[in-house]
Input
Amino acid sequence: MVAEVPGRERLAPPSPRPPRTDALPRPGRRRPRRYLAALVATGVCVLLVVAAVTVLLSGRIARENAVAEAQRTAERLAQLLVAPLLEEAMTGEAERLDELDRVLLNRMGDGSVTSVLVWTERSEVLYATDEEYEGTSSPASDELRSALDGTVVAHLGPEPEAAYGDDHGPLLEVYVPVDVGAERMVVEVYLATDSIDEQAARLRWQIVPLAVGALVLLQVVQLPIAASLSRRVRRQEAEQYDLVLRNLAASERERRDIAADVHDGPVQDLAGVSYALSALRVAVPAPQQPTVDRLVSTVRHAVASLRRLMIDIYPPDLSGPGLAAALEDLADRLRETGVVVGVTAEELRGLRPEHAAVLYRTAREALVNVAKHAAAGSARVTLTGAEVDGGPGVLLTVADDGVGLDDADLERTDGHLGLRLVRDRVQDLGGVVRVEPGEDVGTVVTALLPLPHAG
Output
């Protein structure tokens, strides 16, 4: 093994550490149960809404059907009972009017029919169950005119005062055109709405259980299926979690092995070459010593580059105070270029590894941009706690006194790609990255991340 130059600290190989799994979603019962509860709650809400709509629509449909049935009853009464007896009465058989009175009064006995009137084409009442209105006339209504034209008309509304009585509410008026001899007449039948409402209610409660019962049965059938799917999802999540853990462990081993190979191979060899050249310098002629110095500097620069590559491949431990130490290491790289860098890092509790890694990458990318583009003389890195939407958070600030970097540069795809990638990582954790000009000169890069509440 090549001896090391006294006074220079030897780079230790990376020590193994277990893969970090804090950021991984752990499989459990809560999320599937929450989804199952949401499914049940959604089903119940849909069931209630559909039941309410079914009740309303079924009531309307049932009432329309009941009105239609009442209209058919009035048509049969007018065409099969009133018209034949009225025609016989008009041909000279006056006793048929007494027969018509007897039949209609008998028909009105159950209360479903409250009044019957017969109108002529001159809008005169030829016959009425209430004799007081026989022989009277009034202006023809729209319904009466339509019936005289041959159309059966049904109208739900208040009946004339003569046809009502104090015991009746709104009635259904049905105008039925009939031909009595050579003359067109209209039989106006008033039907009580009580029977219509009863019939509509019976029909409605036949429709509602059928529709709602089918939905309830569907919901009951879906529950075991949803529970089975929930268990399958939970098993798949557990398998996926185990697979991610294995992949992560394999990736960590590969990174550690590569970093160890780089350390034990090229880094040691180049360090040995650097030490040998330093020792050889005194043995070469004076004119060639500057060349040796340049070679030593180049080799040491290569060693430093390999050390940075090792850290990129296998980053330092960022848990606990490790993030502050890692930020100091990043600052040391920039200090080697002659930039004065100050680091202020608070010890933050509850900082998860995924947050620490994103903050580390953000600071590294910002400092790389300072070295490459800012032409700055000084820079400052600050890591402090912050408040985000009323909860805990962390604020990283990297400021320099260089030439500046505006927002348009951040959006360019051909430049500062690293900053864009960092911005995407921060946004994935619910944070935000801003690149703004400094108060006087330079650029300020800030990353604000929310932290999960303790517990």
In short: The chain has nine helices and ten strands.
